[in-house]
Amino acid sequence: MNFIKQIFVFFIKEIYHNFFWNRQWDTELAKRLEDFQTGKAVAEPSDKIFSELRKKYS
After folding, report:
1. Mean pLDDT of 6-17
2. Is residue 7 part of a domain?
3. Four-CA torsion 9, 10, 11, 16, nearest 10 degrees
4. Does some domain include residue 8?
5. How would DSSP label each residue in 2-58?
6. pLDDT band at 1, cuts 50/70/90?
7. How much is the average pLDDT of 46-57?
């Protein structure tokens, strides 16, 4: 019974993590696109931006 509970908890955490992680990325990228389109974007190398996003949402 304990093993089944652990598997269930693991899958619930994975589903939760994947759902919210993807939603956060979508929100952040939409914000950056809006900044770019309105001229408010600060020019930064993409590797720096994606590194920061990985740290923030991992």
Report:
1. 78
2. no
3. 90
4. no
5. HHHHHHHHHHHHHHHHHHHHHHHHHHHHHHHHHHHHTT-PPP--HHHHHHHHHHHH-
6. low
7. 84
Which tokens in the block code for residue 46? 């993409």
Residue 15 falls inside a structural domain: no
As for how many domains the chain has, the answer is 1
In the chain, the amino acid numbered 48 is K
- What percentage of the chain exceeds 70 in pLDDT? 98
Domain assignment of residue 44, given as a range: 22-58
Q: Which residue has the higher pLDDT, 1 or 34?
A: 34
Cα maximum dimension of the chain: 57
Q: Is residue 12 one of the residues assigned to a domain?
A: no
